[in-house]
Write a structure and sequence with these properties.
Radius of gyration: 16 Å
GO molecular function: hydrolase activity
Number of domains: 1
Order of helices and strands: EEEHEHHEHEHHEHEH
Strand order of the largest sheet: 1-2-4-3-5-6-7-8
Structural class: alpha/beta
CATH architecture: 3-Layer(aba) Sandwich
Keywords: Hydrolase
Largest sheet: 8 strands, mixed
CATH topology: Rossmann fold
InterPro entries: AB_hydrolase_fold, Dienelactn_hydro, Dienelactone_hydrolase-like
Protein name: Dienelactone hydrolase
Shape: globular
Pfam families: DLH
Number of helices: 8
Oligomer: single chain
Distance between the termini: 37 Å
Number of strands: 8
Length: 244
């Protein structure tokens, strides 16, 4: 089982907000934002694969207990805390979660250190759309949305919403038009993702690369991982972050 033994613990502060981080590897930078309930062994195992591909990976610790297994108890405990955490928005459509400012700062700092075309940003499930919010900053060159699930897909409007303010949505559209592709990964029949992939296709056209797995699974890169999805994400990081 994967753990954090080989990961260097640090922290990042932006404004009045500080979160711990875990870092490992060498090469271009990739920020892996964990899902609920936190930095679980499955999330660490995926991050280890990104490291082994030749990247510097930083995992911010936003909620949950680092290294704890993704049990039902851990999930319920984490969700209870998220409901009152002002850094996140679970139900509101047309808004960007406040934590996006901190994540963008982390991306800028990592890019300034490592250089290159930019850094990768990957969110999954609860944090899936955060990669789009991070893409608003020019430091992010390879955004990946894995089974994006916010806001909760209750009703047509929320099911189609990208978790972005109108201004951020326009910036994402503009960056895509100027060459920044977005990779999306999900199970085709996963109800948690709503119709967001259709929204992204409508907004970004062929700059949105859809990877859709058959079935009703959810966690494409962790609990319900399929190697084809992992390989496509790793290839995307290679294509976008190793350009001359």
């Amino acid at each position: 089982m994967s753990d954090l033994t080989d990961w260097a613990r640090g922290s990042h502060t932006a404004g009045s907000t500080t979160h711990d981080t875990y870092r490992r590897g060498v090469g271009p930078g990739v920020i892996v934002v964990h899902e609920i309930p936190g930095i679980s062994p499955e999330v660490i195992a995926f991050a280890d694969e990104v490291v082994d591909r030749g990247f510097t990976v930083v995992m911010p610790h936003l909620f949950g207990r680092p290294g704890a297994p993704a049990t039902t108890g851990e999930v319920l405990r984490t969700i209870g805390g998220l409901c009152i955490n002002r850094e996140f928005t679970m139900l509101k459509a047309g808004v960007t979660a406040p934590v996006a400012d901190w994540l963008r700062s982390l991306a800028r700092t990592l890019h300034a250190e490592l250089g290159g075309p930019g850094v990768g940003a990957l969110g999954m499930c609860f944090t899936g759309g955060f990669a789009l919010a991070m893409m608003v900053d020019d430091s992010v060159a390879a955004p990946v949305v894995a089974q994006p699930s916010l806001p909760a897909a209750v009703g047509r409007r929320r099911a189609a919403d990208l978790g972005l303010s109108p201004a951020d949505r326009e910036t994402v559209r503009d960056r895509a038009a100027h060459g920044c592709a977005v990779l999306g990964v999900r199970y085709r029949d996963d109800p948690a993702t709503g119709t967001r992939f259709d929204t992204l296709t409508s907004e970004l056209g062929d700059r949105f690369i859809r990877v859709e797995l058959e079935g009703k699974g959810h966690a494409t890169l962790t609990a319900h991982r399929q190697q084809v999805a992992v390989d496509r994400v790793l290839d995307f990081f290679d294509e976008r972050l190793r350009r001359a």
